[in-house]
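Issue 218. Parser rejects a valid record. Input:
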Amino acid sequence: MIRFSLFITFIICSCSDNKEVELGDEIALDCIQHTPIETKDEELYGLEIVERTNKFLPFTKKLKVCGITLVARNDVSDQFMENIAKTIKEIFITSDFTDTIRQQQLLISLLQYKTLIPLFYSENWSLNTEEEHQLDLLVEQYSMCDIIMEGVDNPTMEVVEHILHHVSDIGLHYTYPEQWGLSKHSALYAETQKAISKEYYNVAQYGDIENEDVRNRVILQEYAYWIIYTSWDLRFTYGPEKSEWSIFSSAELSSKLEGSYSLFQQTIPKVMTRPRDVTLNSFLENNN
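Output the parser choked on:
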C-alpha cells in the first residue's frame, strides 16, 4: 500500500503536464477497505456534534454524519467541520425523487467500509514522524481517499470535491458497480476514456503517480467528481476557472459528452442532491 501521507502530499503539489498518460486496465482499490464491518441498526441519516477523542490520532476530534466520519486536529475550526457535515447531510436529503432503498444502500456502504475524511488547516499542514505513523495506521483500518483543507482558495470546491471523492470511491463504487465502479468494466471507465480521447479531460498532471493502478484509480475518481460537480452546475459560481477539465456547465456536458451526462441523470438524482447555495456559500463567508 502506498503511504497515505506521502501520496496526499503528491496530489497537493503535483503539477506535471509533460508526460504521456493513458487510462490503463488495472485499477487499485488502494484507499478502500475490502471487507465490510457489521453494523447494528445505525442511524444512517444521523448528524452528530463535534466530539473530542483520542481514537483517531493524530486527529483530536471527530464528527459523524450519514455514515462518514470527519476527523481533524485542533487547528481546524469546529465551524468548518459542522459546515462540511451539513453539506453531506444535504447531499443525502430525501425527496419525492429519492430511491430511498438505493440511497440507504449507499449510506450503508459508507458506514460498513468505514469511510473517514481527514481535515487539515491550510496547504502548509505537516506531520511529524510519529503523526505520519499514526496516520498510516488509520489507512489500514479505514477507507480514506483524500483530504479536505480549511483556509485555502476555492473553499467550496475544495469541500465538495473531496466529499464526492469518498462518496464515489466507496458509496457509488459498491452501490452502482456497473455504472460507477472503479473497474475497467464500468460505465464510468468507458466515459472517462471517451472524455480523454475527445480532449475534454487532460490527465497529464497525474503522470507523476508512479503506481499505474493507483494513477488509474485517481483518474476515475477525479472524473466521477467532474461529472457530478458539472451536472450540479457549480463550476461557474465556485470554480475553478482553470483545470484539467474543460467543460463548465450541465448543458455543455450534455451536448459534448452525452454518455457522461446520462450516467449522472440515470443514477445520481435518485440518491444524491445538490447542496443549497446558502450552505455552499458558508465556506466563502468563513474563508474571508
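Fixed in the parser; the record now loads. The two ends are 38 Å apart (CA to CA).
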